[in-house]
Amino acid sequence: MTIAKRGLILGATALAVAAVTVTGAGVHLSQSKAFFQESPKELVDEVWQLINRNYVDATFNQVDWEAVRTDYLGRSYANQEEAYTAIREMLEQLEDPYTRFMDPQEFSNMQVDTSGELTGVGIQISQDEETKEIVVVAPIEDTPAFDAGIRSKDVILAIDGEPTEGMELNDAVNKIRGPVGSEVTLTIRRGEQNLEVPITRALIEIHPVRYTTQSGSEGLVGYIRLTQFSANASAEMSEAIEDLESQGVTGYVLDLRSNPGGLLYSSIDIARMWLSDGTIVSTVNRQGVVDEEVANSQALTNKPLVVLVDGGSASASEILSGALQDNNRAVLVGTRTFGKGLVQSVRGLADGSGVAVTVAKYLTPSGRDINKHGIDPDIQVELSEEQRELLESDRELIGTTQDPQYAEALEALTTEIREARGGSNVTSSANE
Known about the structure:
Layout: E1 8-9, E2 23-24, H1 30-38, H2 40-54, H3 65-73, H4 80-92, E3 100-102, H5 104-110, E4 117-120, E5 123-127, E6 134-139, H6 144-147, E7 155-159, E8 162-163, H7 169-176, E9 183-190, E10 193-200, E11 202-205, E12 209-216, E13 219-226, H8 233-246, E14 251-255, H9 264-274, E15 279-284, E16 290-294, E17 305-309, H10 316-326, E18 331-334, E19 342-348, E20 354-363, E21 379-380, H11 385-393, H12 404-423
Parallel strand pairs: 2-19, 13-14, 14-17, 17-18, 18-21
Antiparallel strand pairs: 1-19, 3-20, 4-11, 5-6, 6-7, 7-8, 7-9, 9-10, 12-13, 15-16, 15-20, 19-20
C-alpha cells in the first residue's frame, strides 16, 4: 500500500482553525447524494468499509469489527441524523480520538483554503486518549487565542460555561467556532490554576514563515520561525532560505516552538531543503508496509542549523525535527515535543459528510516511534513562569537574546559554526 502524501494530515486534531487536505470523493453527482439521503444505512456501511480497509490497527482495538458491521447494518435508520449517531458510536469503539466522523457542516468547516483567510480563534486541539480531556496542542501565532495567552497543554474545562467533560471533540470545536467579532470564553486548567479566558473570534490570515537576520559573534545569523505546515509553508520556507543565503548568513536558527503540525508532504518538502541525503521519515501501515521518504540532493543550504522545539511542536514538526536530529543535521534546543506519531487520511463521503481515519504511524530515520513520548532535544532549556509570561506579554522578544531558549540556540549555533569552519571550508561557501 502506497500512502499518498498529499492527502494526509499530521496535526493533532486541529479544528478550531483547520489546515488540512481532503482526499477521496468530496464531490459526487446529485443522484449519488440523494441515494445516500434515502438510504442512510448505506452511509453507515461506507464508513465501516473505510475503516475495515484502511485503519492502522488490524485488531480494531481488539474489537470484532465484522460483528460491529452485522450489528449496525441490522438496525433501521429513519434519517441521516440517526445514521450519523450510529457512525459515531461505531467509531468510538476504536478509542482513537483522531479517527472521527464529520457531518456535512463539520466537514465543510474542515475544508479550509490554507492560502486564504480562516475564521476562528486560532487554536489546534486534541482529545487525550486516556482522560478524554480537551487539550490545546498549540495556539497559532498572531491569532486571537495566541493574543489571549492560550498555551500548549492547557486543558479546556468549559466553553462559555458549558463543561467539556464527556463532550465530543467535534462538538467542542463547533462551540468554539462562531461569527467574526463574537466572543467565546474558555475555562482552562493550567497546572493547578483554573482560568477564564475570553477570546474574540476573527478572520485569520496565516503566513506560516517569518524570518530575519541577526548579528552573531560569527557573522550574520538567519532566524526562521515556522508556525504551521500549511499548503504554502514549503514555498515560503524556500523563499526565506534563498533570501537569507543571498545575504550571506553563516548559520540558521529554525524555530518550531508551538508549531502544531499540518500536512505531511509539507514537512517532507521542507526537510529536503535542509538535507542533501538520508531518510526523512517512514510511514508504516497495518500490513507493516514501509513507505520511506528520503532526501533528494536538493538542499538549499548546508550551513550549520539549530532547531528550537517545545511541547507545542507536534506531528509534522516532529517529523522535521526528528529527521534533522537523526541525520546529525541540526542540534535541537528547548523542551520535549508533543508526541503525536500518527497519520490521518480525510475522506469525503457521498452525502457531503466526511471521516478522518488513522491510516499509519510514522518513524523517525533511526526507527523511533515518538507517539505519546515526543522527541527529546539535545540541549534542554526550560522557561520559568516569569520568563514565559515576559515573552507572552511582549512577542517582539521571541527570537531575541531576551528569549532564553533562543539565546541558548544562538550559543549552540556559534559552536557549530566554529566547528564547521575548523573542519571544512565547504559550509562557508555553500550556494555561492
